[in-house]
Amino acid sequence: xxxxxxxxxxxxxxxxxxxxxxxxxxxxxxxxxxxxxxxxxxxxxxxxxxxxxxxxxxxxxxxxxxxxxxxxxxxxxxxxxxxxxxxxxxxxxxxxxxxxxxxxxxxxxxxxxxxxxxxxxxxxxxxxxxxxxxxxxxxxxxxxxxxxxxxxxxxxxxxxxxxxxxxxxxxxxxxxxxxxxxxxxxxxxxxxxxxxxxxxxxxxxxxxxxxxxxxxxxxxxxxxxxxxxxxxxxxxxxxxxxxxxxxxxxxxxxxxxxxxxxxxxxxxxxxxxxxxxxxxxxxxxxxxxxxxxxxxx
Length: 297
Fold this sequence. Notes:
- With 297 residues, this protein is mostly helical.
- It has helices spanning 6-15, 20-25, 43-68, 73-85, 89-102, 107-116, 119-132, 137-145, 150-163, 168-176, 180-193, 198-207, 210-223, 228-240, 244-260, 267-279, 283-292.
- The protein starts with 5 loop residues before the first helix and ends in a 5-residue tail after the last helix.
């Protein structure tokens, strides 16, 4: 066969259908004759487009955040988290540090800064936070969590209570770390600082012996005359010490006293108290509640 002239060779290549084996030979990794007009998009290109779309969304979000961070501390937190999500932890730390400077009285910014910094820097950050906002319960709780042993946790919580002596949350956190004797002394102080919190009174009564527990409950009633939990606690106390004949009398007296204080007797609420008493093993108290609140359901 004679070689084609250049012009004829071009016509041949343009107008001649390629053989079937040629199509097959291009079927791996390239566009075939049958694919013309339906070209496949390479997977790498799809991945690139997806990355670019995500990046554009984050850029738009960051631009929006930058428009509000000057007036809103949550904007600094969100901006820092956005940088963290993109893997730019250094920028995230710079942003949240700036947020602490711009909004030093916002405890959430300090908490976020404590989370983002290196672990060995967290105590220093939270120390600055409690010095700036000494009445922030949340920051003192966070400061205690950063300590690795109970002794230092208690030390931090005591420092917090020096600043916020009426914080129930700090007292409860401190009591949870104490032994029974220390817990009793702490609760005695706690009810002096937080006399209107029934849970502290009941916790103290549970740690006392019979006579002392009754005195605690009487003091609690003076501070909280409308609190039914105190009467139920006294009924449980009598049952625990074997004075079952007193259980019904305590509940009956309690309901009358509450009514004199203008408390509406909620039969359903008392039934839940009866169920809780039964679950805890106080059968006499449970029965006394059911019997004396029958007319209120």
